[in-house]
C-alpha cells in the first residue's frame, strides 16, 4: 500500500499545492492534508493508479481488494460539545472495586508494578461471580446515567441539530 500511496503523493502533490494556494487554504503541513485526501478518496485513487499502470480489469479488482477491501474504518470524529456517553453497570462496578484490587495487589507483590491486564482479568472474574442482587446496585446507577445522557443528548440535538 505504501508504494501506491507514495506514487499518488508524487503525482498529485504539485496540483494539490497549487489548489490550496489558489483557494487561500492554510495548511501548516501539506502532508497531513494529502493524507486526508488519500483516505477520503481511496478507491478512486487506486483506480487512477491502475489506469496509469495500464492494468487489466482483473488487476484493478485485485488492487481494490488489496488496498480498499482491507482498509480499516476511519473513526468518526466526536463533536466536542456532545455529552459524555453513559457508563455501563460493569464500569460502575470497576470504579468501586478497582482501587481495593490494586491495593491488594501492591500489598501481595511489593516492588512489582501493577499490570493493567491482570487487574482487568480479575475485575471480569469478579463481575461474573456477582449475583443479580449485587449487580442490581450498579445497574441502577447505569440507568440513572443513561437517563442523564438521553436528556443531555436531547438538549444537544435541539441546540446543534
From TrEMBL:
GO terms for molecular function: DNA binding. SMART domains: HMG. InterPro entries: HMG_box_dom, HMG_box_dom_sf, HMGB. It holds the Pfam family HMG_box. The keyword Membrane does not apply. Keywords: DNA-binding. Gene3D superfamilies: High mobility group box domain. Residues 83-157 form the HMG box domain. This is HMG box domain-containing protein. The lineage of its organism: unclassified sequences, metagenomes, organismal metagenomes.
